[in-house]
Amino acid sequence: MIVANLVNGSPVRAEETSPLVDPATGEEFGRAVVSRAAEVDAAVRAAARAFPAWSRTTPAERQRALLELADLLEAHAGEVADAEVRETGKIRSVLLDEEIPQCVDQIRFFAGAARALGTAAAGEYVAGHTSYQRREAVGVIAQITPWNYPLMMAVWKIAPALAAGNAVVLKPAATTPSSAVLLASLAARVLPPGVFNVVLGDRDTGRLLVEHPVPAMVSLTGSTRAGVEVARSAAATVKRTHLELGGNAPVLVFDDVDVSAAAEGVVGAAFYNAGQDCTAASRVLVHSAVHDEFVAALVETASARVPGTDFGPLNSKAQLDRVLGLLSRSRATVHCGGKQHGSAGFFLEPTVVSGLTQDDELVQEEVFAPLITVQRFGADDEAVALANGVAQGLASSIWTRDAGRAAALPARLDFGVVWVNTHGLIAAEMPHGGFGASGYGKDLSLHGLEDYTRVKHVMTAH
Predict the structure, then answer these.
(1) H helix or E strand, kind and range, residue 81
(2) d(Cα 23, Cα 193) in Å, to the nearest integer?
(3) Which 3 state secondary structure label does DSSP give 128?
(4) What distance in Å separates the CA atoms of residue 194 and residue 206, rounded to the nearest whole number?
(5) Among candidate residues 51, 38, 41, the one with its CA nearest the CA of residue 213
(6) Mutual orientation of helices 291-303 and 259-271 as an angle, nearest 10°?
(7) All residues at 6 or more sequence positions from 12 whose CB lies less than 8 Å from its CB, including other chains
């Protein structure tokens, strides 16, 4: 089995390929093409040819195409789930019951949002002249997605970009290309050729796409390191950038919580997708009065989770080795887990550690695994300082029964998302994006759609 690029609505092979490995078994099951300069250029040129006509379509026409794409994805959910399970080890029922329905909903949201973009009213701001604003598509968009949510991150990128009238060249992660190719093949049934293209490959492929002179904008979801590299490369040709980067979410647990219920909620949000989530509830800060009780509840709840049944493997051996290395260098107390689970695949035991200081790698680095760190605090100010004491600023949560605290603390947390008494839920209507080392720009919502547009002032003398 060889997974190929999809350009102009058709599969396109390349000479070079790389292995595809099932992370649940560690075994190779196929290969994917690796695109180099010629393949990247062909995809970008196809998008450039398609852009003028697509950008002139009406919002109603784009809405109709996206609604048809959503229906096709819904109808082919089983096929897409099978492809993603094979490359990620995700739990199939989670894909079918949660992730793919969310993707369908998000496409439908942007289909409608395409008709809701507005600008300031026209008016005479200079005597004898009428001004108005136009909101336009940006052009060809280069998009790069990660391996943790291959389909969902592709949808978060292509849906607003296409709704705004742009043409897209998407590069999925090298280890998880198939669901993006399937999405593009479904889109080819309802979109003109060249509007949505997929090129496969490695970091060098991504670099070629970012450095290509034609794309007007680069949108990346990935690590902070990748974001810095993309921003630096894009600056050379003054491309716009949209960066959704790493997270390191703090979870502030106060002494008035229902310990059992809060622990259940935190573990669920920490171990979803094996913790490979930029918003994972992995960095838990607990009031001293309930610290020991809460750690015990976390350990009990976490230990009941079964790798391979309740969550899948890590993405690769390299990712598993990285997490085990972080644990081996830490001064933390390991209450449960901390080791590889089984001999096949890249599973990590559900892990809870405590006794960390703020400068510990496990606190400062985004771990991306079913691993919870616990730190102790005594006062609200200390909790806020510990929460904000990392470079990333994507998401956070507060767990308390105190309405005043729940109202006051979100303003003090330097994160793009703050949940109260829950963690990890998203809505297509609400913006998602971070601060600091977590990047800039918003996914989802009308803000996400606006990020894929440009504003023009038109003035007419009369």
Answers:
(1) helix 77-88
(2) 34
(3) coil
(4) 19
(5) 41
(6) 50
(7) 4, 5, 6, 33, 39, 42
Q: Any bridge partners for residue 169, and if so which?
A: 142, 197
Sign of CA dihedral 140, 146, 147, 152: negative
pLDDT in tens, 127-179: 999 999 999 999 999 999 999 999 999 999 999 999 999 999 999 999 999 99
Encoded tokens for 193: 């050729």
Neighbours of 250 (CB within 10 A): 25
- C-alpha–C-alpha distance, residues 180 and 121, integer Å: 39
CB–CB of 29/22 below 8 Å?
A: yes
451: helix, strand or coil: coil
HSE, CB side, 13 Å, CA atoms: give it for residue 394: 28
CA distance 129 to 131: 7
In the prediction, which pLDDT does 120 show? 81
Of 64, 340, 459, 34, the C-alpha closest to 205 is 34
Q: How many CB atoms lie within 10 A of CB 433?
A: 24
pTM attached to this predicted model:
0.97
Could you count the other beta carbons within 10 Å of the beta carbon of residue 311? 24
pLDDT single digits (tens) 393-418:
999 999 999 999 999 999 999 999 99
Which H or E run includes 142? strand 140-144
Alpha helices by DSSP H, 224-343 = 224-235, 259-271, 291-303, 317-329
* Phi, psi (deg, nearest 5) at residue 434: -120, -170
* Residues 330 and 364: beta-carbon distance below 8 Å: no
How far is the C-alpha of 399 from the C-alpha of 253, rounded, in Å? 5
Tokens 């705004």 label which residue? 164
Whole-number Å distance between alpha carbons of 207 and 210: 5
Question: Could you give the count of Cα atoms lying within 13 Å of 96 in the half-sphere of its Cβ?
Answer: 12
Collapsed DSSP state (helix, strand, coil) of residue 381: helix
**Residues acting as catalytic residues:** 244, 278
Q: What string of DSSP letters covers 390-406?
A: SSEESEEEEE-S-HHHH
Q: Edge to edge, what strands does the sheet with 2-3 contain?
A: 2-3, 27-33, 17-22
Please, are residues 286 and 253 in contact by the beta-carbon 8 Å criterion?
A: yes
Residue with tokens 């990392």: 390
> 18 - beta bridge partners?
32
Give the full edge-to-edge strand order of the sheet including 123-126.
123-126, 129-137, 453-461
Give CA–CA dist 279/297, Å, rounded.
Answer: 21
Average of pLDDT values for 80-97?
Answer: 98
pLDDT at 188: 98
